[in-house]
Structures are given as structure tokens and as C-alpha cells.
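REVIEWER CHECKLIST
Item 1: Sequence provided? yes
Item 2: Single chain? yes
Item 3: Sequence as submitted:
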Amino acid sequence: MSDTALLLRGISKLFGTFRALDHVDIEIKRGTVHAVLGENGAGKTTLMNVLFGLYQPDEGEISLNGTVRAIPSPKQAMEMGIGMIHQHFMLVDTLTVAENVALGLPGQGATLKLQAITDRLTELSDEYGFDIDPHEEVWKLPIGMRQRVEILKVLFRDADIIILDEPTSVLAPNEISSFLDGLARLRDAGKTVIFITHKLDEVEAVADTVTIMRHGHVCAEVEVAKSDAREMARLMVGREVVHDRMDRGSASPGAVIFEARDLRVRDQRGIEALRGVSIDVRAGEVLGIAGVDGNGQAELANVVAGLLTPDSGRVLIDGEDVTASSVDDRRHKYALSYVPEDRHHTGLVLDFTIAQNAMLRDFNVPPFSKNGLVNTSHVRDVAQDWVERYDVRMRSIDQTVRFLSGGNQQKLIFAREVECDPRVFVVMQPCKGLDVGAIEAVQRTVMSQRAAGKAILYISTELEHIMTVADRIAVMCAGEITGILTPDEATDERIGTLMGGHAEEGAAAC
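Item 4: Structure as written out by the authors:
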């Protein structure tokens, strides 16, 4: 048998007149981890969707194990031994983990064999260190756990070729290492893994070969052992990219602008998600919030933004208590801006156009509208300006946002929330799904906001991103602040200890 698992030749895909894929050739060896890198909109996910049967190519052919095959649907792809873990979850929130895995599973008949499924899921969960209860309803799980469920779905079906589209984008740093170890175990077991990621350190850690795409073309293919992150980044974006911590300049924070005092709140499950959290952020300062996903960061961001009312405690801006103020007042009266974690459900209206999404935050105030009427020409001018300056890859501003890549969706949200000139800027996972060039641009934008005297609350599970921009780092565990450090004090060991719940003296007073 040939050592080639997949051979893609001349794959092209058009959407209208837009050529998303242009004669793509890739060879993927059996029993390897093959990474696919590229900027947002380079065509990576489109290519994987063709391979998984979600799209049909307009040109080209796919050979599977040496035989040219048509892949008319995901069902046929799975029957051929191809499984795909999507960047955005394909789960039914009201069902349990085991019931989600059972969906579409052959051989179930009128009665689900849930006990057998549950037993196997428990084995897989233990094997890969996922710590997932098969009986838990998906809506009760934090985002990181939901990603693990998606991974378990494919592992359960024992696919020979496993496609992963940004699978670590919602995992905390301490979870990523064990996940990558799991990919290595899959490879050692003879599985073929196709790994889409923007994280070059992950490619270096686990991939054997990397294909680099740009504007729908394959622009390079390299053996990872013979390359490095800097070279791969240069090939991906066509220029040198800053990898190490950028020069943030000297810190000169001013007066306290934002304060949270003794915040307590329960989540949807009735569990206390914030347990007396107190923080403050000064003008010209970035306060980073670090921690394993699901430890209260999302609830903190939503309380600050006015989307969630605390059971007790206060939120203050410039010394004024805004705890009971509306979202609209926080946006327009107190100049608070918010980049949410979930761009699909709270950041965008997917069936609106780019131009319509650009005005979502300020559609009811001048100059976007007057006397209840939208100023359409202004909206279009602003949207066109933003997509050009923030490099949102699209066909036109009349394109539906649903069909933008995840990274380009995020860049549109970021543009909207920065360009309103906020006084308090809350960002939750702002670099999620972005390529290295876009991450660099986002970080420079955050630094420019800091230089302009804004109070910035920067929440991320990716410690390296926090380390790049933060003046102080507050670590959360189980709804509490366990410590606060400067970047120079934030060693891996110290951060890991704080993430594990070992609070430092005086942590509550940060």
C-alpha cells in the first residue's frame, strides 16, 4: 500500500466570481501530522470543507489511499474514514455529551445504546485527559469542554484521517500541551492528522510537514524539522512578523477609570461563578486576566459590559456606580466597548451584511442614524474604510458575514469596537482565530489604545498574548483572583500555581 493517504490535485472552488481555492495541490502522508497554515481567508477551511464533503470542488480530484474518490457529503466522508472537528461547534446544547455523540451514529435503531456509548466515552476521556462527564448536558459545559466533546465525537468514530480546524483556539495553555500529546499518540497509532492552526509553536511541537497557503494558492510546503516559526510566518504573510514580546514602551498609568468591587454572580447552573472579584484599571493601563477557561472570566466580562447583573458588588467608571446601568448607557454615556468571546452569538448577526454588522453598536445614534432613520451612505463609507484598514478579506461590504472566515469576522468586530473611541475597552479572546500577522496588528492596536490613555481589560486563555500587552496580570481560578503579577514576575511555574487555585497573599486587593 502507498504511504500517501490523501492526494489533492488541482482543487479549485468558486463562490460566484470569487475564487476561494485556485488549483491547490497537496500530498498528505499516512501516519503523519500535516499542518495547514495561512492567513485569514487563505482558503484553509474551504479546502478542508471540500475534503469533508461539505463543498464540491469546481475543478480537480481527490485520491484516497490511491483511488480517486468523489466525496458527496460528510456522511460519505465519515464512511470513508474521514472525520472533521470544526472550528465552530456542531453540538445540540440541550442534549448530553453521550447523546451528541450518538447523533448520526449507525446501528442505533429505535433504541439508543447509550450505556455502551457512555462506557466508551469514559475510556476515551480518561485516555486523553479530557475529564468529561458523558451524562452532562452540553449547555452546562464551558467552551473549552465543548471543544473536547467535538474531539471525542471523531475519536469515538475511529476515523483514519482526522481533520482539525483550529482545535486549540478555546483551550487554556495547560490544556494545549496534553492535547498535542494526544495528536502525537494518534499519529503513533497510525492515524493521519490534518491540523489547521494559526499557532506556529503548535506546528513546531507536533507537525511533520506544513503546507502554507496564501489567497487560495499553495505558496510553500516545508518539513517542520528543517524550518522554524519565523520562516513559516514569513512565508505565510509575505513579510517578517514580530514573535517575541513587542516593545510596549514605558508604562505611565493615570487615574483609576474602571473599578469592580466584590463582584458575586451565579452562572446558568446556579454555581457561583464570581466569588468576590475586585479589580481596577487605570488610564493608559492594560490589565490582563489569565486563567483556565471556565473559571469566571466570561461572567466577569459580561458583568462589566452590562450583559449580566451581579448578585452583589459594584461596577464603577470614573467613580460613578454603573452597576444598574443599561448596555446602551455603558456604550454611549460611559464609553465602554466590548469585544465578546463568542463572535457568532454575541458579536455578529451572521445573516446581516458586513455593512449592517459594522453599525450594530451605534446604529441608533448620529452619525449612523438621525430621527430614527439610518444614514445608509455613512454606514457604507465607514464599513468600507474599516475593512480596508483592518484587512478584512471579503468580496464586498454587501457580503453576508456568515461566509467570512472566522478570523475576518473577528477583525470586523475589533474594528467596530475600537473605532468608537472607547474610554474603557473590554476584550475577551480578541486574537481567537487570527493569523500571526493579524495578531500582531491587534496587539499594536491595543498598545495604541493604551498610549491614548484608555483603560483596557484584556481577557484571554492564551498567556503569551497577555504577556505581550499587559502591564499587570490577574490570574483567576474558581471565580476568584488568586494573584496579580507584572509580566516580569509571571513565570510558567508561578502562573501555573495561581491557575491551580493557590492564592498569593493580598490577591483579593488587586
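Item 5: Key structural point noted by reviewer: Residues 4-237 form a domain with the Rossmann fold fold (CATH 3.40.50.300).
Item 6: Recommendation: ____
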